Amino acid sequence: MAQEVSSPEEHAKFVWSLGSYSDIAPHFLSMAARLVDATDVNSDDTVLDVGCGTGNIAITAARRGASVTGLDITPTMLEKAKENAAVASVEDISWHEGTATDLPFDDDAFDITLSCVGHMFADPPDAAAQELLRVTRSGGQIAFTSWTPASVVPAMGKTLTEYLPPKPDAPVPPFLWGDPDVVRKRLGDNVDELVFETGTVLTPVLSPEHYWEAAVTQSGMFIVALENIDEDDLPALREEMIETIEQYFDDSQNAVPMEYCLTTAVVG
Known about the structure:
Largest sheet: 7 strands, mixed
Number of helices: 11
CATH superfamily: Vaccinia Virus protein VP39
Radius of gyration: 18 Å
Helix content: 25-40%
CATH architecture: 3-Layer(aba) Sandwich
Order of helices and strands: HHHEHEHEEHEHHEHHHE
Strand order of the largest sheet: 3-2-1-4-5-7-6
CATH topology: Rossmann fold
Strand content: 15-25%
Shape: globular
Number of domains: 1
Structural class: alpha/beta
């Protein structure tokens, strides 16, 4: 059975501490680099990486000479991020434990606030949006990536939901951060120069079956979800999941493309 937790924050810590995100994160390195490039990070900038995970954005920005702060809700992620920073010889990054809906920083504290598929899991999303804006100075930039609603992860989530017990208080789907219309509403009139671009990262796997095996052993979200599914339903779920993944699998590259939306904006 899943561990009993006392709050949404404790639940998030528990989920993200499961599996092996360190095995997943390297697939997102090009996405992190694209975020840093899109905001033209340089040595004059103070940068915040929200939901920093194992440090992809924070370390990339620090190697550009920026003054960088990384924040994550999971202590084990931060420890791995520190290890990665040490290997990259950028040990002066400031690491903080915290949540995207209540950032432990002053107003206007950063020139650039970034998130690589990290903020999108914060609940409620409107609070996360306001926090991104609050900690970024006027004229500064916010930028983030999120899976698009049409990408493989939401498709898998839809399949999984069909097997889960109904949950009236379920959070808003995180993948709506990849819908430009939703993002426009969340950021409202607080930003200028709002731009959306799409991109793709590849997860190399030998087959759809391998992708599913990786999901149920490396992803805390899938590990926890499977604990709530009747054991008799697991074979059927696996078969349907593999059929879902098959629609995305590119056998010319032995990979599953994962489409994301890159959002950039200037804070008004």
